[in-house]
């Protein structure tokens, strides 16, 4: 497992390293300079990112949120103090675990595990949502194609669907591909 530790303080970064000392097959990469941060993290290509920001200003916090959004990795962020706005912004930025005043070696591993678990759960939800949206879009396309066949050919709805299904089977395609072709052809022929 590759873990990036981002902390401008080498002393605080060592606390995180101490908390990860018991992990086997773990490669750590410590970044203490904010310049070129996103490129440096991307170059290391970590599985997990741990950020210790201490008591960051709003600008520094937003800079790290930009990194969080771009990485698409489990991220645990440690801060000394926080407010509701920062917490909401961190969740929106994709931070998996936002820990206030909790930097201690014995807490690092459970926080890391939580960040990974939450990231995986959120990723599953996003995939499920994308699948559902895709299926709805396919259903809309099929319904549009059925309406076109019903209007132009005078088919009842079951017959329109049966004709598309038959064409899909004959051509070895999915029914949505046939529906897309019908909608495209109708639009090219000046259909509304």
UniProtKB/TrEMBL annotation:
Pfam families reported for this sequence: ANTAR (PF03861)
GO molecular function term, any single one: RNA binding
Keyword Phosphoprotein among record annotations: yes
Sequence positions bearing 4-aspartylphosphate: 52
Limits of the ANTAR domain: 122-183
Superkingdom assignment: Bacteria
Residues passing through the membrane, by range: none
Gene3D superfamilies assigned to the protein according to its UniProt record, in alphabetical order: 3.40.50.2300, Winged helix-like DNA-binding domain superfamily/Winged helix DNA-binding domain
Keywords from the UniProt entry: Phosphoprotein
Limits of the Response regulatory domain: 2-116
GO terms under biological process: phosphorelay signal transduction system
Official protein name in the record: ANTAR domain-containing protein
Origin species: Novosphingobium silvae
Lineage of producing organism: Bacteria, Pseudomonadati, Pseudomonadota, Alphaproteobacteria, Sphingomonadales
């Amino acid at each position: 497992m590759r873990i990036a530790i981002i902390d401008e303080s080498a002393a605080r970064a060592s606390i995180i390293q101490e908390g990860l000392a018991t992990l086997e097959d773990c490669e750590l990469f410590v970044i203490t300079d904010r310049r070129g941060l996103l490129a440096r993290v991307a170059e290391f290509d970590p599985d997990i990112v741990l950020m210790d920001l201490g008591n960051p200003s709003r600008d520094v916090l937003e800079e790290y949120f930009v990194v969080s959004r771009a990485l698409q990795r489990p991220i645990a962020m440690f801060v000394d103090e926080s407010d509701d706005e920062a917490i909401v912004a961190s969740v929106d930025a994709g931070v998996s675990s936002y820990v206030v005043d909790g930097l201690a070696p014995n807490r690092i591993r459970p926080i890391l595990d939580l960040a990974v678990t939450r990231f995986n759960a959120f990723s599953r939800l996003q995939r499920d949502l994308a699948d559902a949206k895709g299926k709805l879009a396919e259903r809309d396309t099929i319904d549009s194609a059925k309406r076109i066949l019903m209007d132009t050919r005078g088919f009842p709805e079951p017959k329109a669907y049966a004709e598309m299904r038959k064409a899909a089977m004959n051509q070895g395609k999915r029914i949505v591909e046939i529906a897309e072709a019908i909608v495209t052809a109708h639009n090219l022929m000046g259909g509304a």
